[in-house]
Specification:
- It catalyses: UDP-alpha-D-glucuronate = UDP-alpha-D-galacturonate.
- This is UDP-glucuronate 4-epimerase.
- InterPro entries: Epimerase_deHydtase, NAD(P)-bd_dom_sf.
- Its main location: Golgi.
- By secondary structure, the protein is of the alpha/beta class.
- It has a domain of about 270 residues: Rossmann fold, CATH 3.40.50.720.
- Strands 3-2-1-4-5-6-13 form a seven-stranded parallel beta sheet, with helices on both faces. Strands 7-10 form a two-stranded parallel sheet. The chain has a two-stranded parallel ribbon with strand order 8-15.
- The longest helix is centred in the first third of the chain and has 36 residues.
- It is globular.
- About 40% of the residues are buried.
- The protein binds uridine-5'-diphosphate-glucuronic acid.
- The site of uridine-5'-diphosphate-glucuronic acid (UGA) has 19 residues, from strand 8.
């Protein structure tokens, strides 16, 4: 039925206007009725829903799911217990942010295993499947690590944690990771890697005593550099992605807090970390998934038709580097926000120092999975990826005792074994 059917059969001007006016009136009153109904429902909803927690300082839509869940004497007991080193007065008391993330889980367990006190903090955002993060949380709980559910932008929560526990160290791993996703959700990088980092440093600088902080920077800060291997002394002023730019900004921010407040700060430039319990957004992880499903994978090549390459670094080597950085971190020199002298400021590459072409990564996976990959080769898109990475690790070797020992084939073997076991058990996912 067209709107013309509404008109009377013998339309005279006056009559038509009158009828139209009547119809408009009817539509208007219907509209008013619906609007009032919606308004009433909305007011009813507002009345019933609890007031938002004043402690939420969360602009990140990806973490919006994580309502802060903390407070109360039982919660404080859990926080204290988890943070306590096995032997009192001997061992670190570490706050690990991003504890249910890939590196966070491994580092927390390693610290706990050797007797340090570890408290986890994680917002369980939905950047990738939160069920994997929950499974890692289960692993952490079984190792005696309690994970507080909250965001690093939640200053009130951070202050509360520092009130309850005198942390000697912070291992800051909470971040928005991933190079390519920065084009889809730039705000999440600013929110986590810049605003969140500043929130943490603000609280840490005012803590008394101030903790020493070790945090995750990234190999991506080397951006478009062509001189290899990448050394800490090289320029880092031509990032290729917003992700890289926020990590580079983090290094500048860290320097400021070291300079003004005497916070001891160590930045670790991780090089494409992989392994069991890894991140599903990374190529080695989703290549495995897609090869097993018989789905085509896209393999990027450089403009000269060469393979892009990465200095893939196995998680256990990274964990050793993180522990080395925590153990050698000097004390912060300020207290309650006042600097008393210069404090340590360090940056290290944590790579494997043997880059492998992505085509080789695929060949290894095919061998381990006993399946041929369906490959589509594509030129490297302009989405932030760089052509190659290669770490010079001399400094970390000398000062942290860092010595990577797992090659890509051995590391992927462990990853594939974990993957098969984990997803077989979770076949209903
Ligand atoms: O080293 C780092 O600092 C960074 O390492 C990884 O970033 P990336 O090396 O790009 O790791 P993947 O996303 O797993 O990519 C690995 C390689 O596979 C290639 N790739 C990726 C995706 C794809 O579909 N096809 C493909 O060939 C990429 O170009 C890259 O050369 C992490 O995702 C970052 O969070 C981290 O900071």
């Amino acid at each position: 039925m067209s709107h013309l059917d509404d008109l009377p059969s013998t339309p005279g001007k006056y009559k038509t206007d009158k009828v139209l006016h009547h119809h408009r009136y009817l539509r208007l009153s219907k509209l008013t009725l619906w609007a009032s109904l919606f308004l009433a429902l909305f007011l009813f909803y507002l009345l019933l829903s609890p007031p938002p927690s004043p402690s939420r300082r969360n602009l990140n839509d990806s973490s919006a799911s994580s309502a802060a869940k903390y407070g109360g004497s039982h919660w404080e007991k859990q926080v204290r217990k988890s943070s306590r080193p096995r032997t009192p007065h001997n061992g670190l008391t570490v706050l690990v942010t991003g504890a249910s993330g890939f590196v966070g889980t491994h580092v927390s367990i390693a610290l706990r295993r050797r007797g340090d006190g570890v408290l986890g903090l994680d917002n369980f955002n939905r950047y990738y499947d939160p069920k994997l993060k929950r499974a890692r949380q289960g692993l952490l709980e079984r190792s005696g690590v309690f994970v507080v559910e909250g965001d690093i932008n939640d200053v009130i929560l951070l202050k509360k944690l520092f009130d309850v526990v005198l942390f000697t160290h912070v291992m800051h791993l909470a971040a928005q990771a991933g190079v390519r996703y920065a084009m889809q959700n730039p705000g999440s990088y600013v929110n986590s890697n810049i605003a969140g980092f500043v929130s943490l440093l603000e609280v840490a600088k005012s803590a008394n005593p101030q903790p020493s902080i070790v945090w995750a920077s990234s190999s991506s800060v080397y951006g478009l550099n062509s001189k290899v291997p990448f050394s800490e002394k090289d320029r880092t002023d031509q990032p290729a992605s917003l992700y890289a730019a926020t990590k580079k900004a983090g290094e500048g921010i860290a320097h400021t807090y070291n300079h003004i407040y005497g916070l001891s700060l160590t930045g670790l430039r991780f090089f494409t970390v992989y392994g069991p319990w890894g991140r599903p957004d990374m190529a080695y992880f989703f290549f495995t998934k897609d090869i097993l499903k018989g789905k085509t994978i896209t393999v990027f090549e450089s403009p000269d038709k060469g393979s892009v390459a990465r200095d893939f670094t196995y998680i256990d080597d990274i964990v050793k580097g993180c522990l080395g950085a925590l153990d050698t971190a000097g004390k912060s020199t300020g207290s309650g926000g006042k600097k008393k002298g210069p404090a340590m400021f360090r940056i290290y590459n944590l790579g494997n120092t043997s880059p492998v072409p992505v085509t080789k990564l695929v060949t290894i996976l095919e061998k381990l999975l006993k399946m041929k990959a369906k490959k589509k080769v594509m030129p490297l898109p302009r989405n932030g990826d760089v052509e190659f990475t290669h770490a010079n690790i001399t400094l970390a070797q000398a000062e942290l005792g860092y010595k990577p020992s797992v090659d890509l084939e051995a590391g992927l073997k462990k990853f594939v074994k974990w993957y098969m076991g984990f997803y077989k058990k979770k076949s209903s996912w």
